[in-house]
Amino acid sequence: MLTNLWYVVLPSSQLTDGLMPVRLLGQPFVAFRDDAGVAHLLSDICVHRGGSLSAGSKVGNSVQCPYHGWRFGGDGVCTQIPAQPDLRIPAKARVDAYPTLERYGWIWAFLGDLPESERPPLPTLDWIDDPAIRVVSGHFDWQASWDRIIENGLDFAHAPFVHGSTFGDPDHPEIESFEVDSDAWSGTAQMLMRRPARKGLLRRKSSTEFVSVVTVPGFHLSGPCTTLELELPNGWRIYIVSAHVPIDANRTRTWWMMGRTFLRSRLLDRRFIASNIRIFEQDHVVLKNVRPERVPDSFQQEVSLKSDALQIAFRKDVQALEQRGWRIDEERLARTFTGRKACAVPSPERRQIRAWAIEPIPLLDISQEEE
């Protein structure tokens, strides 16, 4: 799991007047809106006696801890201590507050301490706001790690075997050669996929044995997301984005959206939603049993082929971020912090203010690992 990335917290529509507990990167957070409707995300651990802020209440523009009534504003600073109202509030009476923005119907939070100028970009998903595209959305929970799920979304060689009853073609498992276009944050490829001929209202009619679909899979480390664009021979298009958010090391929640340029009646939405969930369920059967649970650290620990090129590009981008020291040290986190000591993902304010009661989450020193 990585810090210093934008993560999808939840859909904008799900954050209303109350407090929303959220678990990301193995840590507890609380999301809420202030009186102006601006979304905020704070560490959920009260610095007084460890109360869960999300179990408290929203009072004006603040979150009130249910234990002793301490209040914290959207910037994480304590604004009131009821037991001693005349006390000068200590400098350490603050919790981490994370930058947020709302785009494409989701609330995004930057979980890290980088200044704004150094933060990664968000993916471009303009199709979501296109009135000519009908969009449906949902979520799916996995007993699998976020990186395995992303690689699965970039892997079309599994479609004939895992998705033979939905969109894969077991009789034609071949993957034609393709090129990968990637940078530090994202990657895409374009390939021509064969899928079985289908019949009926929602399936492509064809007199041949298969239909060729122009397929553009991709990934973006903000979200972190997998993307997919499909173009059928008749010009119909499908767009899918899935933000695979690590709840903890081996549990992931996927927030997804699917857009279509055809059959745009609201009455058909349930059919498309069910189809997408069915694909996730087929993948989950495999991914929950993959070993090791996480993507290996070394390329030498698995046998990769040219058809795995987009997954390899993803691994290289992730490893580059790990080299910057952004990977959470899960072993030290379990050994040192579980049960006796709280920690939090460091927010940007930690670069300006040194007085904090709660320690930052431990990060892995890759240079020492390599030695």
User: Uncertain segments of ≥5 residues (pLDDT<50)?
Assistant: none
Strand content: 25-35%
Helicity, in percent? Answer: 10-25%
Most strands sheet? 8 strands, antiparallel
How far apart are the first and last residues' alpha carbons, in Å?
A: 22 Å
Named at the architecture level, the CATH assignment of the largest domain is Alpha-Beta Complex
Instruction: Briefly note the structural class of the backbone.
Output: alpha+beta
Give a count of the beta strands, DSSP E runs of length 2 or more: 21
Mean pLDDT across every amino acid position: 92
Structurally, how many domains make up the residues? 2
CATH topology of the largest domain: Naphthalene 1,2-dioxygenase Alpha Subunit, Chain A, domain 1
The level-1 CATH class of the largest domain: Alpha Beta
Rg value: 23 Å
Let me know the CATH homologous superfamily of the largest domain: Naphthalene 1,2-dioxygenase Alpha Subunit, Chain A, domain 1
Secondary structure tally, helices: 6
Sequence of secondary-structure elements = EEEEEEEEEEEEHHEEEEEEEHHHEEH
Q: Could you say which overall geometry the principal axes of the C-alpha atoms support?
A: globular
